[in-house]
């Protein structure tokens, strides 16, 4: 695999790697007592602005405008209405950016628009999470302070450089607590180094798989199933590599993750690749985003929360044809997964039947996940039509038909 091929999937990776020295410098200055709390917020904010300007160029303005707008809304609107206003602002701006940039003829080698869109999506996560915290009274605004002193922590949280281009969602309360105590935290070199070694292993594994697929030509009929699965595995490895680098950068800056709060641990990786439940895969995949979607949509939607969650996820990702089709297909597959497994597990009583049940559903889960990932990454409608009319659609259609048959069966409890 060429390095340029990796950058197509991970356009922000070089800038994340370049930020490691600044993350280590920030932690060293905090540990040595050279930075006050205000200076720490300024360092993190200035680093974020510098990283945005370097990685996005003039497109960084698209990030700064909604960040400033969200802070102004949070400081001027009552806590009861803050979430509604911030949500409307962020999603409206993000949608305009998606539509505007996708409608232009951009240089395929120019990664700046993709990086800007990714950062805006992460900003939406942080801004809406903060607004919900304020709305629910988890983060009281300090009204007695001046405007600049109240705005600085908010701006720093929305734009702090270790999580500007990636990384799991961190709550404002945890961000503030770690910014205040980062000088007392142990040197994070070991944790960051372990994640970097894991990233190297993932890159090597992906390079070997890409090299094995490079010499193979097209496929036909059922022979396309293994090829689509291998393509999806390449995509998953790219995402895993990205998440590990993001978390390593946070560790290097002293913003360690709580147990189970990151996007990818060894246990999560094992779960993603071995689970025979599509619903378990959906909950484990990109865990911080899954928790954010659950809090923002699933728990607040009175009707059809599962469908609404995946529909909103398609909107948040950009509403390209492949994304709309892929996420709606994912919603149907998860709903079918609940009912199919409730039906099969009750009938698989012997040891042999259980092994057959788990092995078969693991293969089905792998193939359906591959189908969804390839669909979501599809750029054009014609390519999506070719995927839809191929043999790869047999299993999703079978799951959809099984859902119709079991529709009137008792719905299992959902965790």
TrEMBL record:
It is a multi-pass membrane protein. The keyword Transit peptide does not apply. It holds the Pfam family MBOAT. The keyword ATP-binding does not apply. The chain crosses the membrane at residues 42-75, 355-375, 387-409. It is found in: Endoplasmic reticulum membrane. Keywords: Acyltransferase, Endoplasmic reticulum, Membrane, Transferase, Transmembrane, Transmembrane helix. InterPro entries: LPLAT_7/PORCN-like, MBOAT_fam. GO terms for cellular component: endoplasmic reticulum membrane. GO terms for molecular function: serine O-acyltransferase activity. Its main location: endoplasmic reticulum. GO terms for biological process: lipid modification. PANTHER family: GHRELIN O-ACYLTRANSFERASE, PORCUPINE. This is MBOA4 acyltransferase. The lineage of its organism: Eukaryota, Metazoa, Chordata, Craniata, Vertebrata.
């Amino acid at each position: 695999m060429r390095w340029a091929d990796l950058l197509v999937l991970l356009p922000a990776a070089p800038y994340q790697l370049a930020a490691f020295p600044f993350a280590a410098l920030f932690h060293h200055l905090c540990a040595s007592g050279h930075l006050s709390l205000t200076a720490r917020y300024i360092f993190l904010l200035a680093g974020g602005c510098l990283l945005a300007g370097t990685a996005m160029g003039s497109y960084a303005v698209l990030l700064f405008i909604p960040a400033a707008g969200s802070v102004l809304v949070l400081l001027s609107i009552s806590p009861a209405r803050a979430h509604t206003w911030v949500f409307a602002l962020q999603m409206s701006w993000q949608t305009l950016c998606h539509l505007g940039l996708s409608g232009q003829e951009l240089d395929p080698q120019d990664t700046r628009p993709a990086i800007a869109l990714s950062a805006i999506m992460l900003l939406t996560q942080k801004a809406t999470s903060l607004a919900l915290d304020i709305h629910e009274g988890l983060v009281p605004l300090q009204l007695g302070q001046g405007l600049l002193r109240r705005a600085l922590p908010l701006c720093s949280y929305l734009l702090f450089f270790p999580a500007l281009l990636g990384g799991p969602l961190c709550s404002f309360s945890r961000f503030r607590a770690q910014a205040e105590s980062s000088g007392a935290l142990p040197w994070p070199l070991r944790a960051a180094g372990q994640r970097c070694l894991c990233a190297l292993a993932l890159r090597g594994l992906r390079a070997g798989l890409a090299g094995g697929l490079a010499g193979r030509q097209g496929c036909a009929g059922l022979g396309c199933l293994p090829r689509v699965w291998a393509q999806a595995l390449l995509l998953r490895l790219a995402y895993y590599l990205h998440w590990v680098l993001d978390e390593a950068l946070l560790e290097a800056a002293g913003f360690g993750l709580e147990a189970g709060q990151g996007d990818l641990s060894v246990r999560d990786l094992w779960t993603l690749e071995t689970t025979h439940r599509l619903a378990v895969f959906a909950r484990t995949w990109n865990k911080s985003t899954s928790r954010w979607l659950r809090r923002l949509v699933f728990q607040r939607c009175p009707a059809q929360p599962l469908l609404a969650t995946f529909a909103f996820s398609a909107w948040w990702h950009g509403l390209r044809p492949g994304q709309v089709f892929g996420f709606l297909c994912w919603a149907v597959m998860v709903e079918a997964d609940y009912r199919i497994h409730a039906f099969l597990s009750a009938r698989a009583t012997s040891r042999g039947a259980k092994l057959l049940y788990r092995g078969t559903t693991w293969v089905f889960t792998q193939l359906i996940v591959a189908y969804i990932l390839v669909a979501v990454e599809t750029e054009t409608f014609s390519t999506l039509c070719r995927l839809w009319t191929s043999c790869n659609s047999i299993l999703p259609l079978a799951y959809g038909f099984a859902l119709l048959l079991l529709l009137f069966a008792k719905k299992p409890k959902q965790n």
